[in-house]
Amino acid sequence: MEIKKLRFENHVWECMNQGATIYICKNEDCSYYVSYKKNGKKLECQLTGDKIQKLENKLNNLNIHTWDNEYHEPVMDGESWEIDVVFVNGEEKNIQGFNGYPKNWKEFLYLYYC
C-alpha cells in the first residue's frame, strides 16, 4: 500500500540524549520531502530523480500496512519508538514498540540512508 506520509520517532532510555525523528512526505508533484531531527538539529531535503524511485521501492517493500500495532519485549531500559503512517488511500495507522520490532525492522532503518 502506497505511503503518503510517515513519521518515525524513537528514544533510547539508557542514553536520554539519544533519539531521532524522521518525516517523509510525498508531495503533489510525486517528489518527497524528508526531514531528520536529532538533538535539536534538523536536516531537510527534497528528493529528486532516481532517489524518489529508490525511496518508494523501500517504502513499498516494507509492507508497513501488515505490521502489528504494537511490539513489546519485557526489558527495563531500551528503545521506545512510534510510527504514524498515512496511506495514499487515506487510511491511517499508528504502530508503537518498546524493545520489540517487526521482522523487517533493519530494512526500515535503511530509510535513514535513502
Task: Report on the architecture of this protein.
With 114 residues, the chain is an alpha+beta fold. The protein has helices at 50-62, 105-109, and strands at residues 3-12, 19-26, 32-38, 41-47, 70-72, 79-87, 92-98. A seven-stranded mixed β-sheet has the order 4-3-2-1-6-7-5, covered by helices on one side. Strand 2 (19-26) and strand 3 (32-38) form a beta hairpin. The longest helix has 13 residues, at 50-62. The radius of gyration is 14 Å and the shape is globular.
Task: Quickly describe the structure.
With 114 residues, the protein is of the alpha+beta class.
Key traits:
2 helices, globular, 7 strands, 7-stranded mixed β-sheet, alpha+beta, single chain, about 110 residues, about 45% strand, about 15% helix
Blueprint of the fold:
Blueprint: E1 3-12, E2 19-26, E3 32-38, E4 41-47, H1 50-62, E5 70-72, E6 79-87, E7 92-98, H2 105-109
